[in-house]
Amino acid sequence: MDAKAPPVDLGWSAAATALLCGSSVAMITAWYLHLKFESWSVPVAIFLSWLIAGAEYCLQVPANRIGAARAHLSPAQLRAIAEAATLISFLVFQRYVLNVHTLWNHIVGFAMVFAGVCFVLFGPLNTPVFPQGASGGVALVELEDVYTSATRA
Q1: Distance CA 110, CA 119 (A)
Q2: Is the pTM above the cut of 0.70?
Q3: What domain range includes position 69?
Q4: 95-106 residue pLDDT tens
Q5: Are 79 and 20 in contact (CB under 8 A)?
Q6: What 3-state class would DSSP assign to 111?
C-alpha cells in the first residue's frame, strides 16, 4: 500500500469482505452448479451461469468500490480477500453441493495459495517493484532497455 494512504478502516473492510464472500459464493455457483445437472444442455448451462454471474457482479463491484474508497484497501488486498473467499467457497461447494470428497492434495495446494494471500495482506515487502514514471505507469522505455539488455547477453 502507498505510504501516503490513510489507515485501513476496519468497519468498511468488514463490509467489503462480506460482499466479496457473497460474490465468491455466487461465482463458484455460476462456474460449477451445472456439473450437478448433467441433463442441462450446454446452452442452458451457459445461460444460467451467466445469470448467476450477472448477479455476482452486483456484489463484487460494490465490494471493490467500498474496499478501495472507504476501507482504503489496495486492489491487491481486495484480490487477496476475494481469493481466500473463493478457496473456502469452492471447498464447501465441492463437498456439500457436488458431493465430491476433499482430498489432501486439495488442502495442501489451497493452503499454499492461502499462504500467498496472507503474504499479500500482511507481508513485509512494501517497496514498489516498478516505481511509477511521470505518466503514472511503468515507463515502456525502461522495460524495453531491460529486454534489450537481457537478449544481448
Answers
A1: 14
A2: yes
A3: 10-152
A4: 999 999 999 999
A5: no
A6: helix
Q: How large is the angle between the packed helices 104-122 and 75-96, nearest 10 degrees?
A: 160
Domains identified in the chain, total number: 1
The residue type of 80 is A
Whole-number Å distance between alpha carbons of 105 and 70: 38
DSSP 1-56: --TTSPPP-HHHHHHHHHHHHHHHHHHHHHHHGGGT-TTS-HHHHHHHHHHHHHHH
| First-last CA distance in the chain | 35
Q: Which three cell numbers stand for residue 145?
A: 532497455
C-alpha 149/C-alpha 137 separation (Å) is 21
Spacing of C-alpha 105 from chain mean position? 21
DSSP annotation string for 80-101? HHHHHHHHHHHHHHHHHTS--P
Q: How far apart are CA 81 and CA 13, in angstroms?
A: 10
* Alpha carbons 144 and 122: distance in angstroms, whole number: 32
pLDDT at 125: 84
Residue among 143, 144, 117, 120 at smallest CA distance from 130: 143
